[in-house]
Amino acid sequence: MQEKPRTWTDTLVQPKQQKMDMRFGTWNVRNLYRTGSLTTAARELARYKLDLVGVQEVTWSKGGTVRAGDYNFFHGRGNNHQLGTGFFVHHRIV
Questions:
Q1: Are 5 and 27 in contact (CB under 8 A)?
Q2: What does the pLDDT look like over 7-46, one tens digit per residue?
Q3: 3-state DSSP call for residue 38?
């Protein structure tokens, strides 16, 4: 997890015409299989103030949802701890 996530910002208009800035990103995390790596990734995303991040190479064998800091992590399953994708979604937009 040495590489930085790619980021960009977009402004969404919610009902009642309130503007909410959202920051999106993508990140090849290379591996979230080690103990504590999910928490470390969530802290890094909070540092960059990202709201929605797509991640690749999660390497988890089961799909589901996990709470990590201020984020919910939605992930699909890979094959035998290979590949796999997921999304970190900040709690303010879930």
A1: yes
A2: 666 665 555 656 778 899 999 888 887 888 889 999 999 9
A3: helix
Place of tokens 């939605």: 74
* Domain residue spans of the chain: 7-60+76-89
H or E segment and range at residue 26: strand 19-28
Name the H helices within the chain: 37-47
In whole angstroms, give the CA distance from residue 35 to residue 31. 11
Backbone angle region of 93, left / alpha / beta, with phi > 0 → left and psi within -120 to 50 → alpha: alpha
**Residue found by looking up tokens 């969530």 in the block:** 42
Query: What's the whole-number average pLDDT of the chain?
Result: 82
